[in-house]
Amino acid sequence: MESLRLWPVVPEGSGRTVSSPPSMGPYEIPPGTEIMISNIGALRSKQWGVDSEIFSPECWLDNSEKPQELRKAFTGFSYAHRTCAGRTLAEQEAKIVLATIVRNFEFLPIHLPPIGEEMLYHVTARPRGGLSVQLRRRERERHQPRAHGF
Ligand code: HEM
Question: PANTHER family of this UniProt entry (predicted)?
Answer without folding.
Answer: CYTOCHROME P450, CYTOCHROME P450 12A4, MITOCHONDRIAL-RELATED
